[in-house]
């Protein structure tokens, strides 16, 4: 994930965008969040498609509290490897939680409270702000996650049909 400052086009003081490596950017983001400031970053990578679009959408991040986390929130975490990831919370236990990218079919975790950096409060797309806690956004996110059990069933049916087809084709 890389962060990019936002500009308003030609003439803007930030017209010349600079790409900054996440390992250089995120310590500063950590400090801002600890001082109760909000931070906006541009989404990079496609793991959150279709909800977040690479180099098109930005997210506004706020400091996160593990106790108030709930299903469907988009969280910024730091993996044990040091890599920063923006994914959706899909399951929470008393002492940890699990995340996944919207474009993924696997769940990552456990993730521990000390790895939690921030929670997305807004999505910015084409000059419009979308509340990450809004009813429509949350409902669509929930519906999207309902596809996982269905995907598993469809994958098994596909494998079975493929096996039958190969068996019939041999005869």
Describe this structure in words.
With 171 residues, this protein is an alpha+beta fold. Helix content is 28%, strand content 27%. It has 3 helices and 8 strands. It has helices at residues 22-34, 135-145, 147-170; strands at residues 39-42, 58-63, 74-78, 84-92, 97-100, 108-111, 116-125, 128-131. Strands 1, 2, 3, 4, 5, 6, 7 and 8 form an 8-stranded antiparallel sheet that branches. Strand 4 (84-92) and strand 5 form a beta hairpin. The longest helix is centred in the C-terminal third of the chain and has 24 residues, at 147-170. It is elongated and about 70 Å long. The N and C termini lie far apart (51 Å).
Q: Which short descriptors sum up this protein?
A:
single chain, 171 residues, alpha+beta, eight-stranded antiparallel beta sheet, elongated, disordered N terminus
Task: Tell me the layout of helices and strands.
Elements: H1 22-34, E1 39-42, E2 58-63, E3 74-78, E4 84-92, E5 97-100, E6 108-111, E7 116-125, E8 128-131, H2 135-145, H3 147-170
Antiparallel strand pairs: 1-2, 2-7, 3-4, 3-7, 4-5, 5-6, 7-8
Helix-strand string: HEEEEEEEEHH
- Number of DSSP strand runs: 8
Put simply, the count of helices is: 3
Q: What's the overall geometry? A: elongated
* Main sheet summary: 8 strands, antiparallel
What's the short story on this structure?
The protein has 171 residues and is of the alpha+beta class. It is 28% helix and 27% strand.
């Amino acid at each position: 994930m890389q962060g990019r400052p936002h500009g308003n086009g030609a003439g803007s003081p930030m017209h010349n965008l600079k790409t900054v490596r996440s390992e250089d950017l995120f310590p500063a983001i950590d400090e801002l969040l600890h001082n109760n400031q909000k931070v906006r970053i541009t989404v990079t990578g496609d793991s959150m498609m279709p909800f977040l679009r690479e180099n098109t959408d930005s997210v506004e991040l706020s400091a996160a509290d593990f106790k108030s986390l709930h299903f469907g929130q988009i969280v910024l975490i730091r993996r044990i490897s040091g890599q920063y990831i923006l994914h959706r919370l899909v399951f929470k236990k008393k002492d940890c939680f699990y995340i996944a990218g919207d474009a993924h079919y696997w769940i990552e975790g456990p993730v521990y409270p000390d790895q939690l950096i921030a929670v997305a409060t807004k999505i910015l797309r084409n000059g419009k702000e979308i509340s990450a806690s809004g009813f429509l956004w949350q409902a669509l996110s929930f519906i999207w996650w309902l596809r996982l059990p269905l995907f598993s069933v469809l994958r098994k049916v596909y494998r079975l049909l493929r096996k039958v087809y190969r068996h019939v084709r041999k005869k």
